[in-house]
Design a protein that fits this description.
By secondary structure, this protein is an alpha+beta fold. It folds into two domains: about 130 residues, Ubiquitin Conjugating Enzyme (Roll), CATH 3.10.110; about 120 residues, 2-Layer Sandwich (Ribosomal Protein S5, domain 2). Helix content is about 35%, strand content about 25%. It contains eight helices and ten strands. The strands form two sheets. Strands 5, 6, 7, 8, 9 and 10 form a six-stranded antiparallel sheet that branches. Strands 1-2-3-4 form a four-stranded antiparallel sheet. A hairpin with a 2-residue loop joins β6 and β7. α2 crosses α3 and α7 packs across α8. The longest helix has 16 residues. It is globular and about 60 Å long. It starts with a helix and ends in a 9-residue tail after the last helix.
């Protein structure tokens, strides 16, 4: 099995773990899949993957369909063009992109909903604007091993309150609520009213024994501050032993680096 095909199978396994009810159909080799759009399950997309994906070629959007009761709300031709544009924008050679594609679809579909003909006061309209749970977070690629999926997210934080607020918002996302564990670690420096600098650092295993402390050790040896990193695990039923810590550290490090942190940060 070549590397491209292995990457594709891993990606589809991760999507199936994160969105277990949204993967409607796939051919045996996963070269074509049908997915319900998360948060907009009345929409379905059919996507094909060329043999050169993800090394050189992007996926191709074959079809978009809508349930009959929603057909009057959307222009199907507009959606096809929009979805293909989003798919093209998230693809980077060598990197799987379907998770990012689905995340971006939720954002653009909400923006489009906001332009619909709905009578509401300005205050009512503001209340309808959802809070994006992933705002400010940068994610790693998911890792799937024996049915369990691991994915990390990192964000800049300025205080403990800021860190916990962002974490609480992240946990409101539907797929995050389905995670078996959401492990976290954070480090930050705060200057109090007397001009003294106080260092804060802590971690939370969330039921995955010793995971949080390992993540804290990771960001400590990376010598970075002003950071919170979390790793979500969707348990697949099979115990994978110490390998889980390898996946936790690997995804956490990737998310931290993608978020722009480096060993030179002294925040």
């Amino acid at each position: 099995m070549d590397t491209n095909h292995e990457d594709l199978l891993d990606e589809i396994s991760a999507i199936e773990a994160i969105y277990p009810e949204n993967l409607e159909r796939k051919v045996e080799d996963c070269s074509i899949v049908i997915l319900k759009v998360p948060q907009h399950e009345y929409m379905k997309i059919q996507v094909s993957f060329p043999p050169e994906y993800p090394s050189t070629l992007p996926p191709r959007l074959l079809d978009v369909s809508i349930s009959p009761d929603k057909e009057s709300t959307w222009d199907i031709h507009y959606l096809k063009d929009l979805f293909q544009e989003v798919l093209d924008s998230v693809f980077h050679p060598g990197i799987v992109c379907i998770f990012d594609f689905l995340t971006e679809l939720d954002a653009v579909l909400y923006e489009d909903d906001s332009t619909s003909d709905v009578t509401a006061t300005e205050q009512d309209t503001e209340e309808l604007i959802p809070i994006d749970p992933f705002d400010g977070w940068v994610g790693s690629d998911p890792i799937t091993d024996r049915g369990s999926t691991f994915m990390a997210f990192a964000t800049h934080v300025t205080s403990e309150e800021d860190a916990f607020t962002k974490l609480d918002k992240l946990k409101t996302d539907s797929k995050m609520r389905k995670a078996s564990h959401i492990m976290s670690a954070w480090r930050l420096k705060v200057t109090n009213t007397n001009g003294q600098q106080i260092n804060y650092q802590d971690s939370d295993d969330d039921g995955e024994s010793a995971a949080g402390s390992r993540m804290l050790h990771l960001i400590t040896i990376m010598d970075i501050w002003g950071v919170m990193v979390i790793v979500a695990r969707w348990f697949g039923g099979a115990h994978i032993g110490p390998d889980r810590f390898k996946h936790i550290n690997s995804t956490a490090r990737e998310a931290v680096l993608r978020a722009g942190f480096s060993s030179t940060d002294k925040k």
